[in-house]
Design goal:
Layout: E1 2-6, H1 10-22, E2 27-31, H2 44-48, H3 63-68, E3 71-74, E4 77-83, E5 88-93, E6 98-102, E7 105-108, E8 112-114, H4 122-127, E9 131-133, H5 137-150, E10 154-158, H6 162-174, E11 177-182, H7 193-205, E12 209-212, E13 214-221, E14 226-232, E15 239-243, E16 245-248, E17 252-254, H8 257-261, E18 285-287, E19 294-296, E20 300-302, H9 307-321, E21 336-340, E22 343-349, H10 352-357, E23 362-370, E24 381-389, E25 395-403, H11 408-420, H12 425-430, H13 445-456, H14 468-471
Parallel strand pairs: 1-2, 1-7, 2-3, 7-18, 9-16, 10-11, 10-16, 11-12
Antiparallel strand pairs: 4-5, 5-6, 8-17, 13-14, 14-15, 19-20, 21-22, 22-25, 23-24, 24-25
Pfam families: Pyr_redox_2 (PF07992), Pyr_redox_dim (PF02852)
Domain Pyridine nucleotide-disulphide oxidoreductase dimerisation: 338-440
Cofactor: FAD
Length: 474
């Protein structure tokens, strides 16, 4: 069995590892266009901050380790075409020569590419060495080189999604001033606005010059700076942001060109359509990762590129490629978390607007609760928004903000399990969760939020309905 995988990031390497695990006799070849197999793209902001000392530390596994597992790596190789009739992949090496390889099973894991926003002069400014996208290890190394070479003191970040905020945190940590622009009215566009806006004071307090509702309309470089012209609804006069370097982080789009040319069908957001076995509909061809659609437990088919999802999809694709037809991708609920300075914000499931668009009858309640017993030193408050269905009380989504010490990531994981098992909000209150005064409260903060939802929206005679009735116990 010859398995060829196009792409050497999360999905591609997960597929290779699973295929070799299940069939040690399989010949597994991974073709990737750069020289960095199995590197953590999610770790780039922490390399730029200096918290990760060397870019090479971002490797999940070394090349030697992967090859020791029997995986053949063909790096710095750009795939040019897929022959589905002759079962061959053609690629071009960086040195210019053309080669091809035969496959019995093919896995497309080409990932995603950065979205280039319609900013006048962006392409030219990028060529001048002061404007960067951040998506690959080469990008990270180029940005670090520019920061050091210019002794950069001020950066402009265009975009305030997850990566944009992590970059703001990282550059401030490094001692670089940050001017951050977001076209929408609040940071983190995929988070409930009421919760996302609560994070903005943390950014400002840490020194970020934040401008929401602000478009970058044009960009130019000089010998000593980069200048971004701004348009904002807050003033009739155009503004100007000036920095040593600018970084553009305005989202990604699925890389589908090779798959489409091979005959693959596209689905949500123009991503490659796959079933739960990661089959594309082309005989012997699978796909996984940021280039494919995602099966969401509440939405059905959607596009939500996440590293955790790519690992799982890749694992299924690798199993299917070597004939283990019993493995399927079980779907996601969209769990995400990000640390921004001393705060952590997380979500899982649907926002209220997403739930409404999906045909549910949603209602939400916002709760402020302690992360552990107030009498034990260091207690912090967290803010939780619960969204549930008015008719069935089914939990639909949770958004949460709190201190880095408040175990936000673990509490959102509890909510993710509840969503995955289609719990009602009453059942969420029934969960037997751990308690000790330094770490929690007898009714966990998430359960206090559930109680408030029931009291405000779906009064139940099974549990006390007011948040106050739960706060003072034990």
């Amino acid at each position: 069995m010859e398995v060829v995988i196009i792409g050497g990031s999360d999905a591609g390497i997960a597929a290779a590892l699973r295929a070799r695990e299940l069939d040690p006799s399989a010949k597994v070849t991974v073709i990737l266009k750069d020289a960095y197999p199995n590197f953590s793209i999610c770790g780039i902001p922490y390399y730029l901050s200096g918290e990760v000392a060397n870019w090479s530390n971002l490797a999940h596994r070394s090349r030697e380790h992967l090859e020791g597992l029997g995986i053949e790596l063909r790096t710095e190789a750009r795939v040019t075409s897929i022959d589905t009739q002759g079962h061959r992949v053609q690629y071009q090496l960086r040195r210019g020569s053309h080669e091809d390889v035969h496959w019995d099973r093919l896995i497309i894991a080409t990932g995603a590419a950065p979205v280039s926003p319609p900013i006048l002069g962006l392409a030219a400014a990028q060529q001048n060495g002061r404007v960067y996208f951040v998506h690959t290890i080469d990008d990270a190394r180029s940005i670090m080189d520019a920061i050091q070479r210019m002794a950069a003191r001020r950066a402009i970040i265009i975009g305030a999604g997850y990566i944009g905020l992590e970059l703001a945190d990282g550059l401030i940590t490094r001692g670089i001033a940050v001017h951050q622009l977001e076209a929408l009215p609040h940071v983190l566009p995929t988070i409930d606005p009421e919760i996302a806006r609560l994070l903005e004071p943390e950014l400002v307090a840490k020194g970020v010059e934040l401008a929401t509702g602000t478009l970058a309309t044009s960009i130019e470089t000089t010998g000593t700076s980069v200048r971004v012209a701004l348009s904002t609804s807050n003033t009739d006069r155009p503004g100007l942001a000036i920095g040593d370097i600018a970084i553009v982080v305005t989202g990604v789009r699925p890389e589908t060109g090779l798959a489409v040319a091979a005959g693959a069908t596209l689905g949500a957001a123009g991503a490659i359509w796959v079933d739960r076995r990661m089959q594309t509909g082309i005989e012997g061809v699978f796909a996984a990762g940021d280039c494919v659609i995602t099966h969401h437990r509440l939405l059905g088919e959607t596009y939500l590129p996440l590293g955790t999802t790519a690992h799982k999809q890749g694992r299924v694709a690798g199993a299917q490629a070597v004939g283990n037809s019993g493995e399927e991708f079980d779907g996601i609920v969209g769990t995400q978390v990000v640390k921004v300075f001393g705060q952590v914000i997380a979500r899982t499931g649907l926002t209220e607007q997403e739930a409404l668009a999906a045909g549910f009858n949603p209602a939400s309640a916002i709760t402020v609760a302690d992360d552990h017993k107030r009498y034990y030193p260091g207690a912090e408050t967290l803010t939780i928004k619960i969204t549930g269905d008015r008719s069935t009380h089914r939990l639909l989504g949770v958004t949460m903000l709190g201190s880095i010490t408040s175990a936000i990531h673990k509490r959102i994981d509890v909510a993710a399990v509840a969503l995955s098992t289609e719990m009602t909000i009453e059942r969420l209150m029934d969960l037997d969760l751990a308690y000790t005064p330094p770490l929690g409260t007898p009714w966990d903060a998430l359960q206090i939020a559930a109680s408030q939802w029931l009291g405000e929206i779906g009064a139940s005679d099974r549990r006390p309905n007011g948040i106050g009735s739960l706060h003072d116990r034990a």
